[in-house]
Structure prediction request, 222 residues.
Amino acid sequence: NAGVTQTPKFQVLKTGQSMTLQCAQDMNHNSMYWYRQDPGMGLRLIYYSASEGTTDKGEVPNGYNVSRLNKREFSLRLESAAPSQTSVYFCASSEALRVPQHFGDGTRLSIL
Amino acid sequence: TQLLEQSPQFLSIQEGENLTVYCNSSSVFSSLQWYRQEPGEGPVLLVTVVTGGEVKKLKRLTFQFGDARKDSSLHITAAQPGDTGLYLCAVDSYTGKLIFGQGTTLQVKP
Prediction:
């Protein structure tokens, strides 16, 4: 019953450091998403991938890059972390585009 | 820009009580979703609706969608402590991207 798996679960970075958040799904879903969740702001879409080999910007893409490595894996990279990127990051997947059906448990990222 | 407002922001009730939370959009949407999120976990999709005026039931949860496709409500009958969590609505406003509300935090005390 793995569903969507995110690693790491927690991370603390210093301003300017880089890191990659990993996400993998085992449901053979075509579409995958990265969201960030901040207090009082709901979930905001960073990037999404409609299918293997494609990626598109969401609502708040600045400061992030993504890679759809294969059908299972979709990673999110912060090249130069900033305090404003402190957040909880969620990866999600779905059979068809638009409505994420399954979410991972999140990565809690703090940038000092 | 589509705006999505959920009310109330926070609700604390006793076990056995009924409650209703609301989701209002500034624009017509093509579909609406309700999710529940428990602390430390990701959201779980509860229901999707695409038809104005539609009513869907999921055990003690009743989802109602406005005829004008701009609003929705979630009613919980005889709330239980297991219903505690953050309830999020999300709409697809024909832009291809889902817009989430800020959520209603529900606390059900035993």
